Amino acid sequence: MDILLLSNGKIAGNQHVMEFASEAVVEQIKRTGAKNLVLIPYAVIRSSHDDRVALVQETFDALGLDCNVTGLHRAEDPVKAIQEAEGILVSGGNTWVLNKTLHDLGLVGPIRKAVLEQGTPYIGWSAGTNIACPTIRTTNDMPIITGAVLSSLNLVPFQINPHYLEANVEGHMGETRDERIQEFLEINQYEPVVGIPEGTWLHLLNGELSYHTANGKPLKLFSHGKDPVYYTAEQSIQFLMAHSC
């Protein structure tokens, strides 16, 4: 398996989606030889799916990679398109809409098989990272649809909070991100949450998990009954793969 899970699509100063993790993206594409990539754009709400495909194609063009990006929304048979894809990309947007659409179209099983059994490379950011968890319960997004589904791809055995922000906003009287995660842990005491801030990503390669950052920001691990722990890119986080929800 070769899985890149980015906290977000862009950071300040970036022109292209995934630019801050471009070295990792280039290495993955060259390592796997993937050329025909399928983008899953279902999370995109405020722009068109075709526009998102074009933006991602621009990224690969700018990186000098000979890759062709097609949108899964254009496929006559989405399951077959996933089965034949040489790489799977999952855009950010609204996690609830994305996850429900994958379930509605019968794509959860085919994506898991492609990534975990066939070794199809996977790159997700924001919502595309949320769905790699066992469930999407630690997304920051609003459930803007009815009939929302919680279980997801379960590519990693722990929960992730992308766009993690450790901050107290002046004048804001609601719960902080840390407090929301602590609420999750009070109810789900055996499910650690990994907070990955903007400009960072997780890489799962053949069962080996590592953390990477373009700006030096650490990962923050939340566990029930314990103080949060920070991990830098130099520290091992492989123990998270031994966790079982």
TrEMBL record:
Gene3D superfamilies: 3.40.50.880. CDD domains: GAT1_Peptidase_E. It comes from the Bacteria. InterPro entries: Class_I_gatase-like, Peptidase_S51. GO terms for biological process: proteolysis. GO terms for molecular function: serine-type peptidase activity. Signal peptide: none annotated. Keywords: Hydrolase, Protease, Serine protease. PANTHER family: ALPHA-ASPARTYL DIPEPTIDASE, PROTEASE S51 ALPHA-ASPARTYL DIPEPTIDASE. Belongs to the peptidase S51 family. This is Hypothetical peptidase E. It comes from Photobacterium profundum (strain SS9). The gene is SF4087.
